Amino acid sequence: MFPIPWFAVLFISIPETVLIIQLGFVLFNLRIEWRETILASVFMGIVAYILLRLPIIPGAHTLMLIFITTLIISWLSKVKVWYSLIAVLCGAMIVGVIENVIVPLALILMSKTISDLSTHPWLNIGVSLPTTLLAALLFFLVRRFRLVLYDLNMKGSPK
Question: Is residue 84 part of a domain?
Answer without folding.
Answer: yes
